[in-house]
Amino acid sequence: MTKGFSLLYSRMLATLLCFIIYGCSSTHTLPTATIYPAKTDTAAAYNYLIGPGDQLNIFVWRNPEVSGSFIVRPDGKITTSLVEDISASGKTPTQLARLIEKRLSTYLREPIVTVTINNFVGPFSEQIRVIGEATQPRAVNYGQNMTLLDVMIAVGGLTDFADGNDAILVRIENGRQKQYQLNIEDLIKSGDIKANVDVLPGDIIVIPEAWF
């Protein structure tokens, strides 16, 4: 077998192996993530919404046997002593209380329900996601009147490789993504308070890496 034929044979074998490994299982492109806009468009209009993982205390007046503590399941529902699969995620505690009252009225006469929350998580659509060159990139639970500075404190600030003044904030407005420029480096390293801005539930903050 000549050297040239051997090289050609090796290339053909490599091509055949690639076809066997990759050709039999084609890859597909997944659809873009579904947009679930937050239900708050201004800081003044914010109301806490229940989400999966929240621990709820449900008190039914004069009916302790159907009261109790319940965890919202990953599917956003809870099951109480008398009512199964109540949708809780995305509702305020008051809205959920009225729904439970309606469901319990089948079994109890004029039930009065109060819902309180112990462990606050909230729906993903209401959380602020920070990705990129933050010290601790993560999802941050929104709190009323939260600002960019509050979020950056929660994620530990910028890394040494961050380009904070080229960061962007992605926000869903009228069903579409809109981007805003952020000057995070001026805010937290130079103390420029004018660079501080209000954030809203559902915001995504993207911090790129600097080019040195």
UniProtKB/TrEMBL annotation:
<comment type="similarity">
    <text>Belongs to the BexD/CtrA/VexA family.</text>
</comment>
<protein>
    <submittedName>
        <fullName>Polysaccharide export protein</fullName>
    </submittedName>
</protein>
<dbReference type="Pfam" id="PF02563">
    <property type="entry name" value="Poly_export"/>
</dbReference>
<keyword id="KW-0406">Ion transport</keyword>
<dbReference type="InterPro" id="IPR049712">
    <property type="entry name" value="Poly_export"/>
</dbReference>
<keyword id="KW-1134">Transmembrane beta strand</keyword>
<feature type="domain" description="Polysaccharide export protein N-terminal">
    <location>
        <begin position="43"/>
        <end position="117"/>
    </location>
</feature>
<keyword id="KW-0762">Sugar transport</keyword>
<keyword id="KW-0472">Membrane</keyword>
<keyword id="KW-0626">Porin</keyword>
<feature type="domain" description="SLBB">
    <location>
        <begin position="128"/>
        <end position="207"/>
    </location>
</feature>
<dbReference type="InterPro" id="IPR003715">
    <property type="entry name" value="Poly_export_N"/>
</dbReference>
<keyword id="KW-0449">Lipoprotein</keyword>
<keyword id="KW-0998">Cell outer membrane</keyword>
<keyword id="KW-0732">Signal</keyword>
<keyword id="KW-0813">Transport</keyword>
<keyword id="KW-0812">Transmembrane</keyword>
<dbReference type="InterPro" id="IPR017477">
    <property type="entry name" value="PEP-CTERM_polysacc_export"/>
</dbReference>
<feature type="signal peptide">
    <location>
        <begin position="1"/>
        <end position="29"/>
    </location>
</feature>
<keyword id="KW-0564">Palmitate</keyword>
<keyword id="KW-0625">Polysaccharide transport</keyword>
<dbReference type="InterPro" id="IPR054765">
    <property type="entry name" value="SLBB_dom"/>
</dbReference>
<dbReference type="Pfam" id="PF22461">
    <property type="entry name" value="SLBB_2"/>
</dbReference>
